[in-house]
Amino acid sequence: MKALHIAATGMKAQETNVEVISNNVANMRTTGYKRLRADFQDLLYQNMRRVGSQTSAAGTIAPTGVQVGSGVKTAATSRIMSQGTLEQTDKELDIAIRGEGFFQIELPDGTTAYTRDGSFERDPNGNLVTIDGYTVQPGINIPEDGTNLSISADGTVQVADDNGNQVTLGQMQLARFVNKSGLESIGDNLYLETDASGAAQTDDPGNNNFGDLQQGYVEASNVEAVTEISDLIAAQRAYEMNSKIIQAADEMLSTTSNIR
């Protein structure tokens, strides 16, 4: 009986759905995290009578056909790149992006990764780095004796010298992509460029529709608890309904096998 296989694909799809939801909930407090959504597609159909097939010698056409589907499959896990809430931390090296863009991060192998997590620190040499020690690009070096560090909305990094004068240390830049959802997640709040995302376009914050920077803030996750709970309930009910179909199909087979 095909219903057994069809319902099994439905249960498998909802398992994936719950896994995606659980990952979202687990990352509710992850800085810069962007929630995922599971997308589904129906499987191939068996045509018992094709739409538009001839039904008589006179040339009459069937207005509808007879099709039986094969179930469902997970087509994609789309990442929702909406803006998260900016949370004030008052830490001078915390930087949030308000609008479009990603920070550029140099990985140990020289690859450039991208992130919305602006929880930065200084390494022993004074370089601006992520909490994992990866260098923020373009490189910014903050002298040990520099005071009153300021990072403006356009990415200009300045400190006060011994005389109280503001000295510019460098200019932060952001990157953006034609298809942000096409970025590959590699963990540690980092993304990699792919053919689907398109090549990175870089510019100073605030230019050409790039977002600006907010010092002393971080961007919170865009996961909403109410949305995830409602999605979880819907997934649970869909899973239960598919299991009921398997139970019903089993009872029908049992009835058939007991016919004398």
UniProtKB/TrEMBL annotation:
Gene Ontology BP annotations: bacterial-type flagellum-dependent swarming motility
Domain Flagellar basal-body/hook protein C-terminal per the UniProt entry, residue ranges: 214-259
Compartment list: Bacterial flagellum basal body
Keyword Kinase: no
UniProt superkingdom: Bacteria
Boundaries of every Flagellar hook protein FlgE/F/G-like D1 domain copy: 96-159
Domain Flagellar basal body rod protein N-terminal: 5-34
Key words, A-Z: Bacterial flagellum, Cell projection, Cilium, Flagellum
A Pfam family the protein falls into: Flg_bb_rod
Entry's Gene Ontology cellular component terms: bacterial-type flagellum basal body, distal rod
InterPro entries tied to this protein: Flag_bb_rod_N, Flagellar_basal_body_rod_CS, Flagellar_FlgE/F/G, Flg_bb/hook_C_dom, FlgE/F/G-like, FlgG_G_neg, LlgE_F_G-like_D1
Sequence similarity: Belongs to the flagella basal body rod proteins family.
Subunit structure: The basal body constitutes a major portion of the flagellar organelle and consists of four rings (L,P,S, and M) mounted on a central rod. The rod consists of about 26 subunits of FlgG in the distal portion, and FlgB, FlgC and FlgF are thought to build up the proximal portion of the rod with about 6 subunits each.
Matching PANTHER family: FLAGELLAR BASAL-BODY ROD PROTEIN FLGG, FLAGELLAR PROTEIN
UniProt name for this protein: Flagellar basal-body rod protein FlgG
Organism: Roseibium limicola
Gene: flgG
